[in-house]
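So, can you check this one?
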Amino acid sequence: MTTVVTPFLRPRTMGARLMASAWAAYYAALWRGDPAASDFAEWLAQFWEPTLDGPAGAPDARNALAAGGRGIEWFERDECVFGVIPGSQGGYLVPRAMILEHPWMTIVAPAA
């Protein structure tokens, strides 16, 4: 028996964590040469905002391998998920509902 409490994902960061997982799955598929990887890239591209500034505070999730090692930091704020590349202008602004309703979530979400 252990006395360590198991942390559960907090609902307010679920969208950011799902985006980080989806991006990691996309990146792996891209390296495998899977043509389906372009579906995620095209879906995500529609949320690019060229003048988006990232929110203050620590990111809720991160993809370290993105953007040539600069990574993507994912923040969940006010029903939106921000995807920001440190040192770059612009970023992704994805409504949380769009993340949870998108078909690729059934592929990325862990099996029960």
The chain has one domain: 12-108. Confidence is low (pLDDT under 50) at residues 105-112. The beta strands are 48-49, 61-63, 72-77, 80-84, 91-95.
